[in-house]
Write a structure and sequence with these properties.
Length: 244
């Protein structure tokens, strides 16, 4: 290899290293800023806007209204934890047991089921595109680590309940309360909170304002889990570690 070729290779390697370090620093800064500043949008909202534009959905209207933690009944975050991630107060972003169970089920020929925690869902919804590529999963893991390191658990839940899709084009508890339940987020009943959480698996088909039999059954199950977890203290203060 000639001296000139080695020189070019070193310059390319140096620029790649600079780009990598700059991206890491920028991602850390973004996550740190969003610990204190409400996100004005999210990657999933932007993706949905683009989808509606290119598919010609002329009547589409995206609804999103940020509501701070203090203005939402704690029944809402409790319902979301009960429905989506009951180990949320205890893990550091990844539910290792759930991941192993999903892999074991896949090895037995069963359909690979999701094992995403609320922290991972915030990472994906806030920063990333939909998909199953290794690159996207790697970025999801990186942002999950940052979120868990730089945000308190309450902030993670606050962002999650504000950016989760709860109806077609309806994002967050503020917009869902206004549009689908016609009530204040601070005054939602446990049943209403559970119904919001019940549609999270597929908010484009499952409806808060016209609950199907499945949504009603899932709402009842979530209410049972909310009681089993001990009520709103489960999300308003960090509980003691569970005995192993």
């Amino acid at each position: 290899m000639s001296h000139e070729t080695r020189s070019i290779a070193r310059r390319i390697a140096r620029w790649l290293a600079i780009l990598a370090v700059s991206w890491l620093a920028l991602s850390c800064l973004m996550v740190l800023v969003l610990r204190f500043v409400p996100p004005w949008t999210s990657a999933t909202m932007m993706e949905r806007r683009v989808e509606a534009t290119f598919s010609g959905e002329k009547d589409f209207h995206l609804r999103y209204r940020w509501v701070p933690w203090s203005a939402v009944t704690p029944q809402v975050p409790l319902a979301m934890v009960a429905a989506e991630d009951q180990k949320f107060p205890f893990h550091h972003g990844f539910d290792v047991d759930a991941i192993q169970d999903a892999l074991d089920a896949a090895d037995e020929g069963k359909r690979l089921r999701g094992a995403s925690t609320i922290s991972q869902q915030v990472s994906k919804n806030l920063f990333l595109w939909n998909g199953r590529s290794f690159v996207r999963k790697g970025l999801e893991a990186w942002f999950t680590v940052l979120i868990e390191a730089l945000w308190p658990k309450q902030r993670i839940l606050e962002v999650y309940m504000n950016i989760a899709e709860l109806g077609d084009g309806v994002y967050g508890v503020g917009a869902a309360s206004d549009t689908l339940l016609h009530a204040s987020p601070a005054q939602l009943s446990p049943t209403q909170a559970a119904r919001l959480a019940a549609v999270l698996p597929n908010p484009k088909k499952l409806r808060v304002d016209a609950p199907s039999a499945y949504v009603q059954r899932r709402t009842a199950w979530i209410l049972q889990q909310m009681a089993h977890l001990g009520g709103t203290d489960y999300v308003t203060r960090r509980p003691a570690p569970r005995p192993r």
